[in-house]
Amino acid sequence: MAHGHGPEHGRSKMELPDYRRWKIEGTPSETVQKTLAARGYMCGFAKKVTFFDVFFKGFKWRFPAFVVAVGAEYYLDSLNKDKKHH
């Protein structure tokens, strides 16, 4: 018994909504989109994502943080060299 929760056996195909139903033409969203486009705003979803964007996003902050962390590690390691018992 399925109890009204879909087919009893096997998998059913996923039904996708009709793409024509979800267009923004003639809606307030279209007006907002045109206003933002006139101001030069390009939605982040419309921008092509490149290999460079993925790996170097935030690089100007991550690289200096990495250098500081490595420097702190070497400094703290040099303080503990005389305390090692091996």
TrEMBL record:
<keyword id="KW-0679">Respiratory chain</keyword>
<keyword id="KW-0249">Electron transport</keyword>
<keyword id="KW-0999">Mitochondrion inner membrane</keyword>
<keyword id="KW-1133">Transmembrane helix</keyword>
<dbReference type="InterPro" id="IPR012576">
    <property type="entry name" value="NDUFB3"/>
</dbReference>
<dbReference type="Pfam" id="PF08122">
    <property type="entry name" value="NDUF_B12"/>
</dbReference>
<dbReference type="GO" id="GO:0005743">
    <property type="term" value="C:mitochondrial inner membrane"/>
</dbReference>
<comment type="similarity">
    <text>Belongs to the complex I NDUFB3 subunit family.</text>
</comment>
<dbReference type="GO" id="GO:0032981">
    <property type="term" value="P:mitochondrial respiratory chain complex I assembly"/>
</dbReference>
<keyword id="KW-0472">Membrane</keyword>
<keyword id="KW-0813">Transport</keyword>
<dbReference type="GO" id="GO:0022900">
    <property type="term" value="P:electron transport chain"/>
</dbReference>
<keyword id="KW-0812">Transmembrane</keyword>
<comment type="function">
    <text>Accessory subunit of the mitochondrial membrane respiratory chain NADH dehydrogenase (Complex I), that is believed not to be involved in catalysis. Complex I functions in the transfer of electrons from NADH to the respiratory chain. The immediate electron acceptor for the enzyme is believed to be ubiquinone.</text>
</comment>
<keyword id="KW-0496">Mitochondrion</keyword>
<protein>
    <recommendedName>
        <fullName>NADH dehydrogenase [ubiquinone] 1 beta subcomplex subunit 3</fullName>
    </recommendedName>
</protein>
